[in-house]
Design goal:
The radius of gyration is 16 Å and the shape is elongated. It has about 70 residues and is an alpha+beta fold. Helix 1 runs antiparallel to helix 2. It has a two-stranded antiparallel sheet with strand order 1-2. The protein starts with a helix and ends with a helix. The longest helix is centred in the N-terminal third of the chain and has 25 residues. The chain contains two helices and two strands; from the N terminus they run αββα.
């Protein structure tokens, strides 16, 4: 039973870490500012830096995992 729980936690952990690893992989090709909010017409009306997006992504994925 403990082995199944360990495998389950490893799978969930790897799914949690995957977006962060992908973001790090794309880091050099991302622009300095990224649109983070859009109006009803699809126009960007707020921007964030790459660092802000990285911190937000990290906090969201860890928060979802803990939830």
């Amino acid at each position: 039973m403990k082995t199944n729980k360990t495998i389950k936690e490893l799978l969930i952990g790897s799914i949690t870490v995957a977006p962060m690893v992908y973001y790090i992989y794309l880091w050099s090709s991302l622009p300095a500012t990224i649109p983070i909010h859009f109006d009803a017409h699809g126009n960007a009306n707020n921007y964030g830096s790459k660092g802000y997006i990285a911190i937000t992504l990290f906090c969201l994925t860890i928060g979802v995992y803990l939830f």
